[in-house]
Amino acid sequence: MVKFSEHTMKEVEAIIARYPQGKQKSALIPLLHLAQEEFGGWLSAEAMDHVASILSIESIEVYEVATFYSMFNLQPVGKHVLEVCQTGPCMLRGSDDIIAYIKSKLGIGVGETTADGMFTLKTVECLGACGYAPMMQMGMHYKEHLTPERVDQIIADCYNHK
Amino acid sequence: MARKLLLEKAHVEGIRQFDVYRREGGYAAVEKALKMEPVAIVEEVKKSGLRGRGGAGFATGLKWSFLAKPEGVPRYLVCNADESEPGTFKDRYLMEFIPHLLIEGLIVSSFALGSNRTYIYIRGEYAWIVGILEQAIAEAKQNGFLGKNILGTEFDLEIYVQRGAGAYICGEETALIESLEGKRGNPRIKPPFPAIKGLWDCPTVVNNVETLAAVVPIMNLGAEEYAKIGVGRSTGTKLISACGNINKPGVYEIDMTISVEEFIYSDEYCGGIANGKRLKACIPGGSSVPILPANLLLKTAKGETRYMNYESLSEGGFASGSMMGSGGFIVLDEDQCIVRHTLTLARFYRHESCGQCSPCREGTGWMEKILHKIESGKGVSSDIDLLWDIQSKIEGNTICPLGDAAAWPVAAAIRHFRDEFEWHVNHPSLCLTQNYGLAHYADELSVVA
Ligand SMILES: Cc1cc2nc3c(=O)[nH]c(=O)nc-3n(C[C@H](O)[C@H](O)[C@H](O)COP(=O)(O)O)c2cc1C
Ligand code: SF4
Ligand code: FES
Predict the structure, then answer these.
(1) Domains of chain A (ranges, CATH numbers)
(2) B168–chain A Cβ distance below 8 A for any pair
(3) Which residues on chain B are in Cβ contact (under 8 Å) with A51?
(4) Whole-angstrom Cα distance, residue B172 to residue B379?
(5) Domains in chain B, please, with CATH?
(6) pLDDT tens digit sequence for B270-326
(7) Residues of chain A scoring pLDDT < 70
(8) Which of B85, B212, B218 to probe ligand 1 with, by most ligand atoms within 8 A of CB?
């Protein structure tokens, strides 16, 4: 059974308290972020049902939301998800080359995960870092001003820290 | 040097901390505002001429005065920090470097509007900024600027940060409200407007980060002083996020009297085109506004200097002008392909359409497909007309302005760079390895519609 830890449940209660009585559904997106973090980087049906029961809403209300927002993964992903921006301003600064470089370095296509489960490569739309392009998001952080050398370093760091 | 009102203190050492911000004069606007009547603050904002910095440029004071005030019903202020318009990264900069300025602006604005519970809706990807804002909120609370009986008055306020989860459409104010209620970000049909029926059906004002931060200098200087900065109906200062092929991408606070030419070429701002290349085109106000070729960017169709303000950027309408929009300034050098760039934007809007209205849902998909076909050398001449036709059928036929926002970049690209599209169609293999360059600048620009 998937279930939030006691520690996370404290956070859940604090989040629900931000809204007026009876408006606890507003906590749905924050709770899905917590669930994705706590349950291995993606949202299984069990995880979503757990969130539904905490908020006293129907499971379908959770699925509806989880499928709408691009940050929620509905399938398992690698330990590190590389989300490279490909929109106009990043394209002007060479994001196509960075995507091609990562593909060949990791030997995977967009949407795929390396055999060792370390990396998933995704392309995403503008992340609000256009002036620091090309860039990608990795978990909670942005990696900006990417070059092949910087990509090598980032990937090596992931292996070194395991 | 242009006068800075928002970012003046952004690089003072430690300015993210309450004590440093306070020592630099921070929170004086709250002290002043709480001694005033809320309606008097709304009047000040009206007099200042402040226009919404989120993209539409609607008069902020006027918008505030529309807020309904039924007895016994809570009112809400929501800060729009969803910032997802390609080319735009100014709100991020403000929140990251000088978070207390936003919190201060939110306290004054919440007091003016009578909101006791104010939310900052921030795009989900700006995860690390949530921590910065929450820290600033906690410090403001410890120091009596938030919580119960602020500065010994009757005014209570809590500010909460809500993270989105990746959806451009949630920047549209009614979609944002839906999302904040824990639903899909589907825009609502207006009316009713949020000022009457917004968050949890209560009267609500949604304003951009920069708009709410600008309330602080308006309080400190007084509306009249603030309105003297800038020109005409473009009062105060504006944050511009500059990106693309320039020497110095970044966020700049401008006073709206400088010319576009100065903004691009002076060392104080963009520092010229990168790698010694020439300017080809620019989208001056975020991806949704019309792209302009260099000649129409620097001078209007009448041959007058174009300035970095609301009126001048839109001079000539869509035939030969553009818009200030969100201040996302995207510069393209001579080697960039307009078709490819437009394709990435079309893909963006297709990806971000919420899918409620068929002209937007289907039209954005078609535009992406046709642009992809032309870009990969498989287009035929009639595709350009088809593209034009599709964009014209989206505009004005949808629930929210995302449809228009998707149509305009395509329309403007064809309007000003039709010969480049035709060149792709006529050179199916050459266009895969070469760019059209600046060749067409020899001719006067023909206006399609
Ligand atoms: C598709 C779409 C996306 C938008 N995205 C944003 C955004 O990211 N940030 C923002 O402040 N306003 C955005 N807006 C504008 C908001 O709907 C609203 O006009 C704005 O938040 C009002 O604040 P202001 O008057 O202070 O500019 C968007 C509008 C549309 C139609
Ligand atoms: S115009 Fe597009 S984004 Fe806006 S409501 Fe319609 S389908 Fe959704
Ligand atoms: S286009 Fe990549 S961050 Fe904006």
Answers:
(1) 6-68 (1.10.10), 80-160 (3.40.30.10)
(2) yes
(3) none
(4) 34
(5) 18-226 (3.40.50.11540), 237-333 (3.10.20.600), 338-433 (1.20.1440.230)
(6) 999 999 999 999 999 999 999 999 999 999 999 999 999 999 999 999 999 999 999
(7) 162
(8) B85
CA separation for the pair B334, B319 (Å, rounded): 22
Among residues B83, B107, B112, B74, the alpha carbon closest in space to that of B198 is found at B74
Given a cut of 50, is residue B442 above it in pLDDT?
Answer: no
Contact B243 A29 (CB under 8 A): no
Q: pLDDT for A30-73, tens place per residue?
A: 999 999 999 999 999 999 999 999 999 999 999 999 999 999 99
Q: Is B166 on the interface with A (CB under 8 A)?
A: yes
Q: Evaluate whether B238 touches B49 at the Cβ level (below 8 Å).
A: no
Question: Residue A67: helix, strand or coil by DSSP?
Answer: helix
**Would you state the structure tokens that stand for residue B45, as one six-digit string?**
């904002």
**Distance, CA of A119 to CA of B378 (rounded, Å):** 34
Distance of CA B151 to the CA centre of its chain: 34
* Whole-number Å distance between alpha carbons of B108 and B191: 28
Residue B128 identity: W
Sorted by sequence, the CB contacts under 8 Å of residue B3 that are 6+ apart come out as B229, B237, B255
State in Å: Cα B206 to ligand 2 middle: 19
Query: Residue B448: which of B419, B408, B415, B399 has the closest Cα?
Result: B415
* ipTM topping 0.95: yes
Report the chain B residue with the minimal C-alpha distance to residue A33.
B165
Which distant-in-sequence residues (6+ apart) come within 8 Å of B22 by Cβ? B143
